[in-house]
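Q: Got a minute? One more chain.
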Amino acid sequence: MNDVLQLERCTRRFGARVALLDVTLRLQPGLVGLLGPNGAGKTTFLRLAAGLIRPTSGSVRWKGGLERRHPDLANRIAMSSDGDQLPVEDTPAQFLAMLLRCAGLGLDDAEGRADVVLRRLGLAEKVDAPIATLSRGQRQRVKLAQALALPADLVLLDEPLNALDPVWRLEIAGLMREAADRGACVVMSSHILEEVEAVSERLVLLYRGRVVAAGSQAEIRALLQTRGTAVRLHTSDPNGLARALLERAGVRVLRFEPGALIAQADGLGGIYAALPPAILASGARVTEIETEGDDLVSLFAALGEEMR
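A: Always. Here it is, folded:
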């Protein structure tokens, strides 16, 4: 069994509020993107995965079935939280070396590894400065350094790209890939699809505390495409194109806009199959085609409704 993390029917409540509901998921080594709008349950999921909180019901297991307090898991889970809880009086070098010492590295190895990671993240001139004096972006890099420097099997990153410019986003992505190449499962949360797509191999979609979809990027993209059932057609002859489309089975016109019409069918395949002959029959010129309902928010909402 190659599972790094197993959640079986996990529910987590905070009083009357349900943060996660009946989540079953297995994650293997690699890069995993945890996607969801604000309030979807991403942080609760990561805290459960880190063993910082227990599920109200269900179970969480690590590395093929180990309990969180099993000695084989010591220092094998690393997390960078979204909040800033760094020891502000320490320097980045002191903070990171201390964590690495706790993970079992000797003093020289810990200080050497800390220096390499901090310099790679552009903190060479700040390694001996109090963390309190660092900018927001620099502090974010220190947080990520402490998670990515550890020899962990499970690396959990909550909104890791916040406050980072494009250069450092690329560097962090490189460190994440290196951890995955070493055999770690690296989970990064975000509410921005493009951020996660640039890094992750597999996506997990959370919506209102439930996993509504999980799979490869190609599988999630296929869901996005099949969920869109309306197409906005910018055309020189909306009326003529509408008449030609209505003659094709399964296609119906929703409404007209200046210089455009919106057509709908039971699936995008029906529209796109009917469109070429309709254009030829009508003689209309189509300048732009936009699919509606194929964005991530629409997918979350549609899948969430299906699970009710």
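A: The first strand starts at residue 5 and ends at 14.
Q: Perfect, thanks.
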